[in-house]
Write a structure and sequence with these properties.
The protein has 16 helices and 12 strands. By secondary structure, the chain is of the alpha+beta class. It has one domain: Cytochrome P450 (Cytochrome p450, Orthogonal Bundle).
Length: 442
């Protein structure tokens, strides 16, 4: 779907109209217009009513799907859990999860057999987000049994299915896939209810936590119980699940794309290995925050990955009031499709835009400045609704990449069927299933 829209943008220009069923949608393939629309939230534009409805039906209508006052009340609560100071305090746990992940990949390398890259990365990101959000070490990395991630993996594909469905059939008929989704969601909701109950017990045992919550779920419960709040237990539960979903797929898919793109260019892999070996010294990965922050080329590789392979290549919004974009009048209720990658593939902004070149984010290649490029490539969105977890995501990427290129060599990477790697859009965009073979780095 996203590739078709991008092709229309290239053929018809920055603004074009297409129809889905009986609904007209305005395609926006211009970075300046896209940025202006993203910054005109909340107020001018909102999440679509369909997305809000589908999320609410699944019991996961957290800050991501919320609009207006509901979004404002939840945003402050969620942002507090992802601020720089909180992430800095959380770093020792993040390093511990990365150490566990390193041991897992040492086993893969010792066996010399291919493994499912995305599956491993999603276990890592779920463990990281669960620790930050709930103060709980769920350790899916070393678990051989069923974990919460097993059930989360079924949510995004069904979200995409329902958002794309021409009719909302599940309100009247439950197909086998819908009943299966109900089963997985029931398990997720029970697990989250248990996490909330334990957090309430901690707050009762240690009242000082109300002044300085140690994790996101405690902060949400404190806000939930404060005088004059409009938050409910459902809001807390929905945001817990939203954090798990958003933190799992987006960062894991970006890491998978980074590893795949870097593996196709020996010079990039060599430079990544050179940087991490120089900066890390005897460390196995960026075990300290100041070390992780010093990995400039690694961070540039993440930005270049997100330019070429944004996990959200299309963002659908709805005009909350009549607006004008470019020279086009948009009536209230009109759905707009923002093509997030279109400007990133424009030669006016990026020389040889199809080439994976992390150096362009360091000012060592290409034209333009890093600041101007960030106004074109907006993988985390823009404006008041910019992704609250962006700092954590970039930190995770630096840790996993430093661990990989410091300790291992990629001896093979290919799809399960040996076919060319394709982009799969299942609410977020991922590469087709990648099998990776590692060897210890000399």
């Amino acid at each position: 779907m996203h590739c078709a829209m991008e092709a229309w943008g290239k053929e018809y220009g920055p603004l074009f109209r297409f129809r889905v069923g009986r609904r007209d949608i305005l395609g926006v393939a211009d970075s300046a217009m896209t940025g202006a629309i993203l910054r005109d939230r909340p107020g001018g534009f909102r999440r679509t009513r369909l997305l809000e409805t589908v999320f609410r039906e699944l019991g996961i209508a957290g800050v991501f799907a919320a609009n207006g006052d509901a979004w404002r009340s939840q945003r402050k609560m969620v942002m507090a859990g992802f601020d720089t100071g909180h992430v800095k305090t959380y770093f020792p746990f993040l390093a511990r999860v990365t150490e566990r992940f390193y041991r897992r990949w040492c086993l893969h390398a010792a066996r010399g057999t291919p493994f499912d890259l995305q599956a491993d990365l999603m276990q890592y990101t779920v463990d990281v987000v669960a620790g930050l959000a709930f103060g709980v070490d769920i350790n899916t990395i070393e678990s051989d049994g069923e974990t919460i991630q097993t059930h989360l993996n079924h949510v995004f594909p069904m979200l995409n299915r329902r958002l794309s469905a021409p009719i909302r059939y599940w309100r009247w008929i439950r197909l086998p896939v819908d009943r299966e989704l109900d089963r997985h969601l029931a398990i997720v909701h029970r697990s989250v209810a248990d996490l909330i109950a334990k957090a309430r017990e901690r707050l009762e045992r240690s009242p000082e936590l109300r002044e300085s919550p140690s994790n996101l779920i405690e902060a949400m419960l404190v806000e939930r119980e404060s005088p004059g709040t409009h938050l409910t237990d459902d809001d807390v539960s929905s945001n817990v699940i939203t954090m798990l979903l958003a933190g799992e797929d987006t960062t894991a898919n970006t890491l998978a794309w980074l590893i795949y793109l870097a593996s196709r260019d020996p010079s990039v892999m060599e430079r990544l290995a050179e940087e991490v070996c120089t900066v890390l010294g005897d460390l196995r990965f960026a075990e300290r925050l100041e070390v992780a922050s010093a990995l400039k080329y690694t961070a540039a590789s993440a930005h270049e990955t997100m330019r070429l392979k944004p996990v959200a290549p299309v963002i659908l919004l709805e005009a909350d009031q009549s607006k004008v974009v470019g020279n086009v009048a948009i009536p209230r209720g009109t759905v707009v499709a923002l093509l997030m990658r279109r400007g990133s593939m424009d030669e006016r902004y990026f020389e040889r835009p199809e080439v994976f070149d992390p150096g362009r984010w360091l000012g060592t290649s290409g034209s333009g400045t890093t600041t101007s490029r960030e106004r074109i490539s907006m993988p985390f969105g823009a404006g008041p609704r910019i992704c609250p977890g962006r700092n954590l995501a970039l930190l995770e990427i630096n840790l996993v990449a430093s661990m990989l290129f410091r300790n291992f060599e990629i001896t093979a990477i290919a799809t399960a069927g040996g076919k060319p790697v394709e982009e799969w859009l299942s609410f977020t965009m991922s590469p087709s299933r990648l099998l990776v073979t590692l060897a210890p780095r000399a």
